[in-house]
Amino acid sequence: MASISSAIHNGYTNGITIYKKNQTEKSESIVINGKNLTLEKLVLIARHHHNVELSNDADVCGHMEQSVAIIHDIVSASQPLYGVTSLFGGLANRLVCGKFAEELQNNLVCAHKTGSGSIMPLESIRAAMVLRANAHLIGASGIRRMWDERLIRFVCEGVTPLIPEFGSIGASGDLVPLSYIASAISGQDEKLHVDFRGEMVNAPEALRRLGYETKRFNPKEGLALLNGTSMMTACASLACYDLYTLMAATLHIHAIVLQALTASNQPFHPFLQKVKSHPGQVNNNTDNNKYISYENSAINYHTLDFFHFSIMHIESQLWEYILHFFHISIFILIKRQDP
């Protein structure tokens, strides 16, 4: 059998790259445009602090500007539009005149900062900020690009809003946690704190250090920042990536055990997997075969070997369903974020 101890984090599992950071590698910026963000890229940004940039593509910028112009025209004409010139939920039939549309958005952000509990992991918050900016780049949110530039600047500079872990329903949006992010980048709340490269400072001070001024939200912008599932998607994405990593490690550990036991390699021969045709088992076996040699056909039969092989085959089929579920779920969440 070939040596595999150096390959535990360098394989591929169901199309997901298991990333191991090289301390000497150069961190290149990841450019997001609303359609190209992947699970791997999100992990690189949120956990490994890779730089990220907003796309300067003319179509991306143009669509964002058009959506802002549409909102401006609706407010100027006092046309009814949910959450912009009307109230929310059960009060959606209550209209708001144009001159109060801006105040409505700023009050919306302020009213939802009601979280409680311990502070969420910073990597989850960073991932949520990237996901929210990425959703806005589609150009259907009616929000100025400057807010997404602030989100990405915070991420790149290591400035992370401190968000309590409890307070989101996830159905119509992660309103409570995202309100902390929105408030942080606007700098309107002196009581809201951020982690500024390891130092806790209030939001206005963080903006001052980054060279920004306190800003108020225009009509629709508070809603655009709050009404999405970016936080739950961030947590689910990181958990999914960890699952893939654990699976890759499990497969490689199995191969190490086979090597240590000088066990039979015959049950893993590609011919047998082709005959069985269980997709999950075939995929896992293909991964293991990178580290199992068939040149030496010597067989050492042990009861433990057969038990080990049986468990591995059953496990492979179970992983097939788990990975399919996570792959589809995370794809939908990342690619179909509410704008």
UniProtKB/TrEMBL annotation:
InterPro entries: Aromatic_Lyase, Fumarase/histidase_N, L-Aspartase-like, Phe/His_NH3-lyase_AS. GO terms for molecular function: ammonia-lyase activity. The keyword Lyase applies. Keywords: Lyase. Transmembrane segments: none annotated. Belongs to the PAL/histidase family. This is Histidine ammonia-lyase-like protein. It comes from Adineta vaga.
